[in-house]
Structure formats: structure tokens, C-alpha cells
Amino acid sequence: MPNMRRERQIFLTLCLAAPLVAGCAQNRTVYLFEDGRVVANDPALSRQYADDRRACNDLMARSIAGGDHSDGGLTRGAGIESVGDDCMVEKGYVAVPQDQVPAKQRELAAEYAAETAAAAAARRN
Questions:
Q1: What is the residue extent of each domain of the chain?
Q2: Which string of DSSP letters, residue by residue, matches the chain?
Q3: What is the pLDDT at residue 17?
Q4: How far is it, in rounded angstroms, from Cα 9 to Cα 4?
Q5: Minimum mean pLDDT range among 30-44, 77-91, 95-109
Q6: What is the reported pTM?
């Protein structure tokens, strides 16, 4: 009887955890440029992204080797990852969950168009 109880607990745990894991796998992060362009849609942008990502990964590696991030537990990984995220933001990328890309892309493109129009109007005056 105790074996059956343990098996049931394992089964329930797996049933509850499976949708969470599947959800994480399905909603990956996509990088957009600040003007709304999708990195993966352009070979030149993809090469630039690869170079930028490599530089940010190198920065994370140096950060791991050279510093203490939080308490060394679970929050340490988040602290290290934030180094890479901050680096990508500084390079002009916006990290967006895949299911939100179309809306965010429209938002960024509209903001970029407004900024470009304002800059052109300022140059004319």
C-alpha cells in the first residue's frame, strides 16, 4: 500500500508539472530591435545579433568568474542572467515573449515612426 501511495504522489506531481514545463518551452523569448524589426527575419540582423549575443555571453562569463552574485543560491543565476539582459538592452534589443511579438512589434514601430517624424520636424525648424 505505501508503494501505491508514493506512485500516486509521483504521478500527480508529474501531471501538475508537465503543463508548466510545456508552457515554458512554448513561450520562448524573441529579440526585437527598438524600432520593431525582428532579428530572425533578416540575415544581416541575425549576424549582428549573433555578434552582440556572443559579446554579452562573454560579459556574463567574466561576471561569473569575477564576482559574487547574491547569496550563491537560486538568486545567483538571476543575478548573472541580468548581466546578459542588461548588455542586450544596451545594444538596442527588446526581449519579448514569443506570444506578444506582433503587438510589441507594432508598438515599437509606431514609437519609432513618431520619434523619426518629430526629429525631422525639428530639423526643418
A1: 28-124
A2: -HHHHHHHHHHHHHHHHHHHHHHHHHS-EEEEETTS-BGGG-HHHHHHHHHHHHHHHHHHHHHHHH---TTSSHHHHHHHHHHHHHHHHHTTEEEEEGGGHHHHHHHHHHHHHHHHHHHHHHHH-
A3: 43
A4: 9
A5: 77-91
A6: 0.59
